[in-house]
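ok trying again, last paste got cut off:
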Amino acid sequence: VHFPSGCRCEWPILTHHFSSQELAPTFPHTLIVADGHSEVTVFETFESADPAKQKLTVGMTDLIAQNGASVQYVCFQDAGDDNAKHVQLNNTVVGRDARVKSAFINLGAAWVRTESINRMVAEGADSRFSPRISPPEFRSMINGHSSVTRPSTPPATSSSRMLSTTSRGRFSVD
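nice, full thing came through this time. structure:
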């Protein structure tokens, strides 16, 4: 989905992915490009047509926010009960004075892994990653990983929220 420079999308965009075949993995890929000074909100959902069937979904999402753009992205995963496995891979590139907020909501699967790589490639870039963990009775294991890289900046202009040019977070719940 491409949003041209200056475009302001007043309604959220929804992408919906369904898994319906047992033992048939799915690999959906979504590309969101927000050109300079555009604004967009995207909701991406992953669901199962039959929660009792075994399935694997590996979703890949690329978010690109050019200079001055603003992107809000929310990923909902409700693949089913103890028979579903879900992997979500997100790659985010944020330009000068652009903002990206990403949230992940996992509502049901036996196993979930979310990985988000956020690259802030120019001064003033801001990318925030918020994993949301659902009730523990829906899964036996949750893994999450985030890497954030900023370009080198002099101390006078570096963000007070970042202690170094690279940070990593890892969490897991059994």
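cool. Residues 140-146, 153-174 have pLDDT under 50 and may be disordered. The chain has no helices and twelve strands.
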